[in-house]
Write a structure and sequence with these properties.
Elements lengths: L12 E4 L2 E4 H5 L3 E7 L5 H12 L1 H6 L2 E7 L3 H15 L7 E3 L4 H5 L24 E5 L5 E6 L8 H16 L2 E2 L10 E3 L5 H7 L5 E4 L2 E4 L4
Parallel strand pairs: 3-4, 4-5
Antiparallel strand pairs: 1-2, 3-6, 6-7, 8-9, 9-11, 10-11
Helix pairs in contact: 2-4
Length: 219
């Protein structure tokens, strides 16, 4: 399966550290963050899981439900969670999916569909492509896809920034410029004519070019 932005996030049923879930039912009507890891008890991923745990209040503020995925068993996840809490100073406070049969990793195209066997005996290098981030909207469509190499830890502050943009632009006919941060100016999308923009933004806008119109971030 080839997934793209706008694809429906594949549904699945799996065991997690918080019990069995059906993914779409678990997401409900809100936003979701699914991030995957090639192997339990690996150094970079240990820091990432701790970072997401520390950021839970920020995800909650945005209505985001976070869930981790690793090509290992739930029992391994629970044992790994103790190391994460000890070394990162934060207990894992979101579910982690056990994917011993590699089914979810293959469903999301992170491992080839023809990959055989189970997680047993596979190394992190065998699973190096299982290093993705998916942001999923209330419509169950994928809004963001990021793929990272094993040696590069993910920047979850950047992921929060993108979520702010996704949620803002989903509700207003605006786009966010390069390096935008919450509270800064945004761009009126080209589909909004000047005539329509006058109604939406009676205080006017700043135009560097006819197609590049800036307004304060909508509330």
């Amino acid at each position: 399966m080839s997934l793209r932005i706008g694809s429906e996030a594949p549904d699945f049923t799996a065991e997690t550290t918080e019990g069995s879930i059906n993914f779409h039912e678990w997401l409900g009507d809100g936003w979701g963050l699914l991030f995957s890891h090639p192997k339990d008890f690996t150094p970079v991923c240990t820091t990432e899981l701790g970072s997401v745990a520390k950021l839970k209040p920020e995800f909650d503020k945005r209505g985001i439900k976070a869930i981790g995925l690793s090509v290992d068993s739930v029992a391994d996840h629970l044992a790994w969670s103790k190391d994460i809490e000890e070394t990162q100073g934060a207990a894992v406070n979101y579910p982690m999916i056990g994917d011993e049969d590699l089914a979810v990793a293959k469903l999301y195209g992170m491992l080839p569909a023809e990959t055989s066997g189970s997680a047993e005996g596979r190394t992190a290098a065998d699973n190096l492509t299982v290093r993705n981030v998916y942001v999923i909207g209330p419509d169950k469509q994928i809004k963001l896809m990021l793929t990272y190499p094993m040696a590069t830890g993910r920047n979850f502050d950047e992921i929060l920034r993108v979520i702010d943009s996704l949620q803002l632009t989903a509700n207003h006919q605006v786009a966010t410029p390069a390096n935008w941060k919450h509270g800064e100016e945004v761009i009126i999308v080209p589909a909004v004519t000047d005539e329509a923009a006058k109604e939406k933004y009676p205080d006017g806008w700043r135009a560097d070019k006819p197609y590049l119109r800036y307004v304060p971030q909508p509330k």
